[in-house]
Design goal:
Elements: E1 7-11, H1 16-27, E2 31-36, H2 39-51, E3 55-60, H3 66-80, E4 85-88, H4 104-132, E5 135-141, H5 155-173, E6 178-184, H6 199-208, H7 217-228, E7 238-241
Parallel strand pairs: 1-2, 1-4, 2-3, 4-5, 5-6, 6-7
Helix pairs in contact: 1-2, 1-7, 3-4, 4-5
Protein name: 3-oxoacyl-ACP reductase
Keywords: Oxidoreductase
Organism: Lentzea cavernae
């Protein structure tokens, strides 16, 4: 298995994307620690992983609380011996409106919360990875220089901001053997709410791809597991495009 004897921490592990990554990590042999705010969602993913024969533990932690995040990651390392993979899929609250219509405080708060959570969780994992001289930090969303979609509001801006953080982490952590990789997405269609209003959005994502296909949660998990594994050891300080060609990073 690709991730046997590895330890993975997934912030936002109770969500659709985080859960898909956790499933894939566990299926490849990793011991997975799911972190989030909603116990029922975390336990649902953990139960699914255990039923498939994997190892999963959960913890309710506010990713914007540095003390709580650090206490948790220290406990993970004490229990598992290391933290080999850390991924935070907590993103800014999506405000899908024209920028001119978004109240300034709402925009600023959403972006600030996302960046704060990313900075805190990455710092916590990096502290241990630097000591180990190894580890993989995964990010999700990515920066699409060709984005021409109106009405995206703060969503792509939030992804761009997180990607800027990732680039800076790359520079600072590479000398310590820590890899940093972003999964660049054009939209994961089976993560959308199953309502008629989302059909047009799903189709637009498919239409944007030269192959007329769109990534699924299973695709996200499969690529994340490969990138985090030793087979992906040459991939760092970059984005991995999982958009079927719809994005241009």
């Amino acid at each position: 298995m690709l991730l046997e004897n590895r330890t993975a921490v997934v912030y936002g592990g109770g969500g659709t994307i985080g859960g898909a990554m956790a499933d894939a990590f566990a299926a490849e042999g990793a011991r997975v620690f799911l972190v989030g705010r909603t116990p029922a969602k975390l336990e649902a993913v953990a139960d699914r992983i255990r039923a498939a024969g994997g190892q999963a533990e959960t913890a309710v932690v506010d990713a914007t609380d540095a003390s709580a995040v650090n206490d948790h990651i220290d406990a993970v390392v004490e229990k598992a011996g290391s933290v080999d993979i850390s991924v935070n899929v907590i993103t800014s609250e999506g405000l899908f409106q024209p920028l001119a219509d978004i109240p300034t405080p709402d925009f600023a708060t959403a972006i600030a919360n996302s960046l704060t959570a990313q900075l805190i969780t990455t710092k916590a994992a990096a502290r241990h990875m630097v000591k180990q001289e190894s580890g993989v930090l995964l990010f999700f969303g990515g920066s699409d220089a060709a984005n021409i979609n109106a009405g995206m509001g703060n969503v792509q801006i939030g992804f761009d901001a997180v990607e800027s953080l990732r680039r800076q982490w790359s520079v600072e952590l590479a000398p310590h053997g820590v890899r940093t990789v972003t999964l660049l997405t054009g939209g994961v269609i089976d993560s959308f709410p199953d309502v008629p209003e989302m059909e047009a959005a799903r189709q637009s994502i498919i239409d944007a791809s030269p192959l007329k296909r769109a990534a699924t949660t299973a695709d996200v998990g499969a690529v994340a597991a490969f990138v985090a594994s030793e087979k992906g050891r040459s991939i760092t300080s970059t984005q991995v495009n999982i958009s079927f060609g719809a994005c241009y990073g």
